[in-house]
Amino acid sequence: MKKIPVSYLPLILGVIVLGMPACSKKAVRSGGDMQALQDETVKGGGSKDGTGSSFPDTSFSGRNESNNLRGLDRNPSEERLGGHAGNTGSPGGVGHANAMVAKADSGAGARQLAEIRAEQVASVAAGLRDVFFAYDSFSVTDEGRHALAGDAEWARSNPNAQLKIEGHCDERGTSAYNLVLGEKRAKAVRNYLVELGVAPTYLSVVSYGKERPFCTEHTESCYSQNRRGHLVVKTGK
Amino acid sequence: MAFRVVVFISLCVSIGVGWIIESGAADVFLEATRQDFQKIPLGIAGIENLGGSESPEARVKLGTRIEDVLKADVRRSLVFALVDLPSLGMKVSHLGAEPDPSFKQAAENGVSVIVWGQAGMKSGNKDADLSMDGYVYDAGSNEVVGGKRYVGSASVARLMAHRFADELVFRYTGEPGIARTKIAYVSELGTARELFVMDYDGYDPRQLTADGFLNLMPRWSPDRRFLVFTTYRNRNTQDIDMIELATGKRWTLVAQGGLNITPVFSPDGNSLAYSSSHEGNAELYRLDMKTKAVQRLTTHAAGDLSPSWAPSGRELVFTSDRSGGPQIFLMSADGSNVRRLTFEGDYNAAPVWSPRGNLIAYVCRTPKKEYKLCVITPDGQKRLQLTTGLGVDDSPSWSPDGRHLVFSSTVEGKSQIYMIDADGKDLERITFTGTHNSAPSWSPAS
């Protein structure tokens, strides 16, 4: 597989694409540890037991024309339009709903950045290496396996470290499907690390799709940087 | 005469749409998406500036601004054809509440509706009240059929034009118009992506979240009060949250571990369809908003995502890679009767069902590996590629009148938001600032 000419790449990609369903099946079968993932955060509304409080009423019985438009009138009465100080008062109208205000939680961004930096520092110190993928593919390449061998060794010698595997995609394709593809990439990395003897309980996966690119140029060299499984030492929660 | 035109058009629309939904008849497709079908010729004789402000420029700007917004709204309505009155030899000024004698002449030249008005500030103070009077002359009856009088602060000048435009559409079609609709979207702030809402024409953007990480893919509740979206709790776990626009209050609807993406309300607002991988791989689920019961809709080893409801609420269209690359599939709302809709190309994703029911828009990958917008009839008989060129088009969302789509594209480099007619005409960019604007979602009409 190593010395196949570049012109055969589309063919190889095709084979990989055809192989997708099979791969996915494997992922499901080998996913005993996914149960752990599933159980870890059940909370809030989605769960059957809920958390007591109910969701606000979102039911909609159909458009109510009288909500807002009052029709043309031969002797129009004055219509006062709400400005930014509130919406137009109708239940269905956003008007200029201004209260749509970001909670001025300026601390959130700074806290996230600080935590991301701490993770970066820890990951660099650990010497973790990332895995890169071909276009449309979530198969770990030989080069990727080589990188993961080193990562697995680090994980085995730091048995208390929690590793997070981030799945990333290049900008081509839709946002939504790239989140699925990113998860497939992250899980492919996770599964290979498990094969190498890393305990699944110390590994978590998250997909960022194409939403957190490492590089923002519209070039193949940039795209190939963004198609990755990124390994991070979890320092926070 | 104008009355007859209206009746003719509404018959066309209702019969046309009904026929397509029922039979998907192939030759009706062109009819329904042809935008030059019998538009109503409408002329804007001007929004005159009244006294009341000491600054002549300010007054000129106000009238001109309102008139420009009104013209753009009328053009985008696709209900009216905007007639250039001066080219018909009409020169009117100082219009009052009465029709000008020249209107009759314009009517004889085929203009069905003439609109004019006045706008003024009540004082020179920036926060002072504005007022706008608008009048509508109907050529059929040769009289002023009605008007509007709006007052408000300087910040609602555009809204006055939007409301007047929607009243015109409502008067002549019975539909509420789209000029007061909103678009929710994602915008990049540093490395974070936050939710914003703007007017449908790209003006007046407002930030909704400030979480400092990723908030993705907002969708409106049918009553326009809420948005649902994917958020990353502690950067590591995806939840589906709902935010109330008027208050900023938030609820977590789904927090199950794994991917939790592409939430979308059913047309009746009682259910939320979404994709989650908490049971292994991405599957579609339906959350009952009243009982919180969750029903699994798909069972397949491949990824299922991006559900979108038929306007009837009885069917869903979604993306699945069960046949290799992603393709568009249909199923009943209970998960039965799954069948593949797209067969052209090896990558089709992000489907959205038109509020009129007759078309499904989606992202199609071309043979040159560009990601462009396509539309297809729900019976798969007719398919049309709407956009061309370089870059990645993504996240199409229908206007509530089903006549336009909004979407993101990197065609000019950075991801920005664009609007296009359902037949591929009138491509219009609506965001111009920022490093990244994406995932637009068009609000329902009110």
Structural key phrases:
heterodimer; A: 237 residues; 5 strands; 39% helix; B: 446 residues; alpha+beta; five-stranded mixed sheet; 5 helices; disordered N terminus
What would you note in describing this structure?
The complex is a heterodimer of chains A (237) and B (446). Chain A is of the alpha+beta class. Helices cover 39% and strands 10% of the residues of chain A. Chain A has seven helices and five strands. Chain A has helices at 9-18, 20-29, 34-40, 106-126, 142-157, 175-195, 220-226, and strands at 78-80, 131-132, 163-168, 203-209, 228-233. The longest helix of chain A is centred in the middle third of the chain and has 21 residues, at 106-126. Chain A is elongated. Chain B is of the alpha+beta class. Helices cover 17% and strands 40% of the residues of chain B. Chain B is built from five helices and 29 strands. Chain B has helices at residues 2-23, 26-33, 56-77, 102-108, 157-173, and strands at residues 40-49, 80-83, 113-121, 129-138, 143-153, 182-189, 192-199, 206-207, 215-220, 226-233, 237-244, 250-254, 260-265, 271-276, 283-288, 294-296, 304-309, 315-320, 327-332, 339-340, 348-353, 360-365, 371-376, 383-385, 393-398, 404-409, 416-421, 428-429, 437-442. In chain B, α1 (2-23) packs across α2 (26-33) and α3 (56-77) packs parallel to α5. Chain B is globular and about 70 Å long. Mean pLDDT of chain B is 88; it is low at 1-35. Chains A and B meet through α2, α3, β1, α4 and α6 of A and β5, α5, β7, β8 and β10 of B.
Largest interface: A-B, 99 and 126 residues
Rough shape of chain A? elongated
**Strand segment tally of chain A:** 5
How many H/I helices of chain A? 7
Determine the fraction of residues in helical runs of chain A and give it as a percent range. 25-40%
* Average pLDDT, all residues of chain B: 88
Question: Could you say which overall geometry of chain B the principal axes of the C-alpha atoms support?
Answer: globular
User: What is the helical fraction of chain B, as a range of percent?
Assistant: 10-25%
The biggest beta sheet of chain A reads: 4 strands, mixed
Label the structural class of chain A: alpha+beta
* Sheet/helix structural class of chain B: alpha+beta
- List segments of chain B where confidence is low: pLDDT < 50 over at least 5 consecutive residues: 1-35
Following the backbone from N to C, one meets helices and strands of chain A in this order, namely HHHEHEHEHEHE
State the distance separating the first and last CA atoms of chain A: 41 Å
Radius of gyration of chain B: 23 Å
What strand line-up does the widest sheet of chain B have? 2-1-3-4-5
Task: Report the β-strand fraction of chain B as a percent range.
Answer: 35-45%
**Unreliable stretches of chain A, pLDDT < 50, 5 or more residues?**
1-7, 9-51, 84-99
Distance between the termini of chain B: 30 Å
Strand content of chain A: 5-15%
List how many beta strands of chain B DSSP finds: 29
